[in-house]
């Protein structure tokens, strides 16, 4: 329990850091928030980005010049930059407003379970896509899928992709699925390079191995169909991703070249349901644990009877290519 007399602000009791705490406190004022939104509304990424003081004050609608100047000055250290031509959002300010826009979308984000032109790779039955709480869920309409949600084993999933609500804007169900696919791969590949796509912080990479895995369906211990997956976690903002090791392997140049030689492009034109379906049908990967201590796995990608295999250590580093 926090001592009521120990601090003027509850934010001082948490561990975000003094600079971050100050930034959070700055956002608790409507005039400052209005300044940020007004600067964003005037922002043109390929044109003029600065707004003069008088114009900015008129846009915000604050009559008291002194009060407006005070709030603007408070923002300068974090979210606003003063220039000879006026004021503009700093990179932190621009990212903040973009995060709000991305997190809310232009309209209320909704997508009921909707069938798309794809078949389940397990049973061949139709696939449906739904959007819930920032996630695009890909579900088979018939079988139990590859994994289940913890606490809700009646809902089998084939895939689950994070997507900001803005990703639903002006897109059909199939286009939402494709956009979520692209966004997910960009995020995973950035984290494989150990750079967080959210905050640019360093990323920890590891193997997640279920020691008591149950085969034949989603495991009751890990809620996954796959015994071994890649786990990626930002050490700064706690962004995370979990991916099949076949996805990790398909980022390596040896596997990219192998797939290209066999008519499967991995890096271009995959914002398309037909391409996604082909990628799921061709170039499947098999995973084998070859060492327990230290943990090592072999990921083999096969097309038309040919194979390429990578051996990965616990940090997802490629230690051998066959």
UniProtKB/TrEMBL annotation:
Q: Which InterPro entries match?
A: DUF7347, DUF7351, WH-like_DNA-bd_sf, WH_DNA-bd_sf
Q: What is any Pfam family matched here?
A: DUF7347
Q: Which residues form the DUF7347 domain?
A: 21-100
Q: Which residues form the DUF7351 domain?
A: 118-318
Determine the domain of life of the protein's source: Archaea
The protein's name is Helix-turn-helix domain-containing protein
Origin species: Saliphagus infecundisoli
